[in-house]
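Sample A.
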Amino acid sequence: MILTPDTTTARKVAVTASQAGFASSMDDEQLWMFVSTTNCWIKQANPSGTITCVAKASLVDTDFMTINDGINSAVLYEFDTAGDGVTGGRVQVNVSTDTTAAQVAERLKTAILANQSYISVTHNGSGVLTLTATSRNITLTENVTDAGFLVSFGPQASAAAGSMFIPANVIMPIDGRAGSNLSVIRSTADGDASLTKAIRY
């Protein structure tokens, strides 16, 4: 078998000490070619992340967060602290009878599961939700006034278990996996990485 890169699919990211990530278009049964100008670790996984909720008293009525999959219309989840409804087109997260961050998290979890079925959500019992997406590359944004409300979603990479070391300038074939991100973290100096779909002959 001979592999040739399909240059129309080539994507490039900067590799730094923190992370870089390729979006989730590495479909099943496709082969991709990865190369980096620096030694790095790579990890392929479904995109996942966390939402750290705050107590109802720290929310302002109409605060909201957004989950966007890049395919469908973004879903806006509005926190309704007064119990009087939300802005048209937004999903109500009615926390009017709640108090704690854990209760707010449970309300938000229920709303997400009801509106975005490709996301699984677990709650640690203390107000932190963990989200895992399938077949989508998700982005989270929020406009919650309280700085304690935090969202983090996207590719993660490290030299931990499950990562693979790739020397600089070595082309590595990677099997596609629908819904996954390829995460990259540098091992030595900063550099650039590219991911290109392979054509098989």
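Sample B.
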Amino acid sequence: MPDRIHDYHEGNRFFHDRFDTRRLADAWDERTTEFVDDFARGFIQAADFFFLATCDHRGLPTLNYKGGDPGFVRVLDDRTLAFPNYDGNGRYHSMGNLLKNPNVALLFIDFENPRRLKVQGAAEVRLDDELLSEYTEAQFIVRVTTTEVFRNCPRYIHKYQRLDNSPFVPREGCETPITSWKLQPNNLPLLPANDPARTHGKNAERQ
């Protein structure tokens, strides 16, 4: 059976043959698609977080958590996802990697009803994307053109219950609180000139 989506290499095939899973692997590959189907669309647009994998200029992987309110990742069509980049620690590990290597993997997990979905594709950072105005305090938008979309076995996903939403997710009509690490005296001088924490810190010093 020829490979359709995955280009299985000799490493993959070593384990397929060692544990007699070649038939299973090829069958799963037949169920892998480039497109976001109805199940994947619903899963992605209900998610309030995902894990993002990128690679740096050395070929070394970086894995980050991205969170927001449900719907912060949008399915624009059956080959395109979009999500915002919010303020972080200023290192831009993942986003900087995308300017060197656009290949990405996104892992969506539902811990309350154990299931997971993996998306692979090519990402584009768009500083002036038309969606930017629809995300409060977003710095820019990342669009992902999907190349592989498939469900992963959920057997080993531990069941967890979400207790609360992060108060730091930017929301329209709500002042975003300032994270405590920015207010530490050794960090304040390092912040961007327009960071609200600078003004907050100066006001606290006057009190």
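B remarks: Helices lie at 10-18, 22-31, 38-46, 93-100, 196-206. Strands lie at 49-55, 61-67, 74-77, 80-85, 103-110, 115-126, 140-152.
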